[in-house]
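Posting here for the record, re: adenosine-5'-triphosphate.
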Amino acid sequence: METEYSIRTEGVCRYFKVGGVETRAVDNVSLQIPARQLVVLRGRSGSGKTTLMNMMGAMDMPTAGKIWMGDEEITAMTDAQRDMFRRKNTGFVFQSVALITMMSAYENVEFALRMANYPKKQRHDRAMEALRMVGLEPRANHMARELSGGEQQRVAVARAIAPKPRFLFADEPTSEQDSATGLQVLKVFQELAKETTVVITTHDEVIASMADCVFAMEDGKLI
Ligand SMILES: Nc1ncnc2c1ncn2[C@@H]1O[C@H](COP(=O)(O)OP(=O)(O)OP(=O)(O)O)[C@@H](O)[C@H]1O
Ligand SMILES: [Mg+2]
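Prediction output follows.
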């Protein structure tokens, strides 16, 4: 193993102002994500999990505070540097899955590999491997819209993990799964966490209990 890849935040805040009313979605969060552990963010709906995760993954910038991914302070980068860093190093499973509907399951995953400049010769095998990991090899040629909600969510997981990002973020990646399939997806994340920083959000007690490290949020704060 090389560098201890992990994430640190220092006094991170994210405030939104809508119609003159300020929401402190994330309020003064300082944390350290250990390398090679499966990390869970938990908390009630609206507690700030998605907002915090998006900032830790360089998708969104804090109102105040600093964030490091590995040795790099992403809050000190220009927008262009941060976009480049994110594209190169991170994988995301969004809460609203967002597959490309005109592509098949396989094409969605393969496309992500192309975007990540994954070696051309290995793309096919890697895409199929990622689909197999989430139990969807038999659905590889289904168009995204021909898949069930849970299957689409698993394609989104395959798409995020396929390029082997250094940092993987998954926002409620098991919300559409039955408990057995949810556990299968969680096992995939546990396996990845041996080499990668994996952060997921969940409401599911069972999933949270299987994490190596849990951060609980309430009203934008860590508790
Ligand atoms: N772009 C935005 N503009 C204004 N308010 C926002 C925005 N994004 C989030 N919020 C507010 O910030 C708070 C935290 O939202 P967030 O999506 O982080 O919660 P969450 O913990 O992920 O909830 P859930 O479990 O429902 O996904 C909420 O009150 C939400 O309404
Ligand atoms: Mg959320």
